[in-house]
């Protein structure tokens, strides 16, 4: 698979450089050495054993190709890993390595170790998005624009409110991710620390402390709630980023031109059309998010696993977990740059408010006219004047003032006020202030 050309561009380069085969081996070894340290501390291993294991294995060059080949016969990488590690140990140490553990303990714990720094990076990126979003929404809390429903012009809103919605979505996802616990896995063959009795849980808690992972209530071999929670939290963040990218890409359309992605050398260029400036960052975000959604589906379908060990369900989780985190990290890198450098064209927003000839203000005009001519006539007159204004390229208030049925009955100042989009934005400014207060509570 040409991953470097069709998969990796959607991912975080930093994340990719940290999540490679050797990193997984190091994470598995970290688990095994922590296990030995805990067992030694509890008197289950001779004094000095854990240090000797570390000295023998810390610099050992594991054969990654052989590990990969071993997965085909053993079903997971922990089996060939343990074999290689024991082969590198002197005879008197072999029996102390991997004592009381099972393959799932090694793999699950190693994956949690790999994901821990990725969650920290995701949090940092989401904080960047929050800061950029707050600055953008405050700068445009009075930038009036068209609100669109079902892809059509509806009523006025402000760009500040739109940014507030993007920022709230991303921050809600950040707080959800921040609450995710990455637990250590240690239960032995069937999850009850066979042969260790009351020491088993002490070992589990001790390993968690040494590795900086959460200590679960019980081993979670086929209780995949931790994976379900993590996967859906990643997906929620991907959805928030995708919402941002979708809205921005729609607003960049030539006919709208209300925003533009940050400029950059070669960014958005077409292979054949020199005039184009494509919303490439939005495309990368949406492409990554769609893949995260697919990975989440795999995790959800693997949530129910049989008895004390999954048969294929557990195995199916590994790629979606790592790839999902790397894809989200890549999407958020683009989202942060997008929000920090978004070009806002307030003039285009004002221009688009007038595209319908004032029809988007038909609602407040109808409310103004109803007491004078009745509800049905008010709606008809408001619509007729809007069409005339659009067709003749005249101001909506001017056309209304000349309408035979209301001429002289409503003051021109009242008509002008009813036709002013800037005076019909409801709680937009208050919403921005409220959103900022919530966002800054952390």
UniProtKB/TrEMBL annotation:
<dbReference type="InterPro" id="IPR000362">
    <property type="entry name" value="Fumarate_lyase_fam"/>
</dbReference>
<comment type="similarity">
    <text>Belongs to the class-II fumarase/aspartase family.</text>
</comment>
<keyword id="KW-0413">Isomerase</keyword>
<dbReference type="InterPro" id="IPR019468">
    <property type="entry name" value="AdenyloSucc_lyase_C"/>
</dbReference>
<dbReference type="Pfam" id="PF10397">
    <property type="entry name" value="ADSL_C"/>
</dbReference>
<dbReference type="InterPro" id="IPR008948">
    <property type="entry name" value="L-Aspartase-like"/>
</dbReference>
<dbReference type="Pfam" id="PF00206">
    <property type="entry name" value="Lyase_1"/>
</dbReference>
<feature type="domain" description="Adenylosuccinate lyase C-terminal">
    <location>
        <begin position="357"/>
        <end position="436"/>
    </location>
</feature>
<dbReference type="GO" id="GO:0016853">
    <property type="term" value="F:isomerase activity"/>
</dbReference>
<protein>
    <submittedName>
        <fullName>3-carboxy-cis,cis-muconate cycloisomerase</fullName>
    </submittedName>
</protein>
<dbReference type="InterPro" id="IPR022761">
    <property type="entry name" value="Fumarate_lyase_N"/>
</dbReference>
């Amino acid at each position: 698979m040409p991953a470097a050309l069709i998969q990796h561009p959607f991912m975080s380069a930093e994340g990719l450089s940290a999540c490679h085969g050797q990193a997984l081996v190091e994470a598995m070894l970290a688990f095994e050495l922590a296990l030995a340290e805990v067992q030694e501390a509890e008197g289950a291993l001779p004094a000095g054993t854990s240090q000797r294991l570390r000295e023998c294995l810390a610099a050992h060059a594991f054969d990654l190709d052989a590990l990969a080949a071993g997965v085909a016969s053993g079903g997971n990488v922990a089996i060939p890993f343990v074999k290689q590690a024991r082969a590198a140990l002197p005879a008197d140490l072999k029996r102390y390595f991997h004592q009381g553990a099972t393959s799932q303990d090694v793999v699950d714990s190693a994956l949690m170790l790999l994901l821990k720094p990725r969650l920290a990076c995701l949090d940092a990126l989401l904080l960047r998005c929050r800061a950029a979003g707050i600055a953008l929404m405050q700068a445009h809390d009075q930038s009036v624009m068209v609100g669109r429903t079902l892809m059509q012009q509806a009523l006025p809103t402000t760009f500040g409110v739109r940014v507030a919605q993007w920022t709230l979505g991303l921050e809600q996802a950040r707080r959800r991710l921040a609450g995710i616990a990455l637990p250590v896995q240690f239960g032995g063959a069937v999850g009850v620390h066979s042969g260790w009795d009351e020491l088993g849980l002490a070992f589990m808690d001790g390993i968690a402390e040494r590795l900086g992972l959460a200590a679960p209530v019980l081993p979670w071999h086929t209780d995949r709630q931790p994976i379900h929670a993590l996967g859906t939290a990643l997906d929620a963040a991907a959805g928030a980023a995708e919402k941002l990218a979708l809205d921005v890409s729609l607003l960049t359309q030539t006919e709208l031109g209300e925003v533009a992605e940050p400029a950059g050398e070669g960014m958005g260029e077409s292979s054949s059309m020199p005039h184009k400036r494509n919303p490439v960052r939005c495309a990368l975000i949406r492409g990554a998010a769609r893949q995260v959604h697919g990975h989440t589906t795999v995790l959800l379908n693997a949530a129910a696993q049989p008895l004390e060990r999954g048969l294929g369900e557990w195995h199916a989780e590994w790629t979606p977990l790592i790839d999902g985190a790397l894809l989200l990290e890549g999407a958020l890198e683009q989202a942060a740059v997008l929000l920090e450098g978004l070009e806002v064209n307030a003039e285009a927003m004002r221009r688009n408010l007038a595209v319908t000839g004032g029809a988007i203000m038909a609602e407040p005009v109808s409310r103004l006219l109803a007491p004078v001519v009745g509800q049905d006539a008010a709606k008809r007159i408001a619509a007729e004047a809007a069409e005339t204004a659009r067709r003749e390229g005249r101001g909506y208030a001017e056309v209304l003032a000349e309408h035979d049925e209301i001429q002289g009955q409503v003051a021109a100042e009242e008509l002008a006020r009813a036709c002013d989009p800037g005076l019909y934005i409801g709680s937009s400014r208050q919403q921005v202030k409220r959103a900022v207060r919530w966002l800054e509570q952390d």
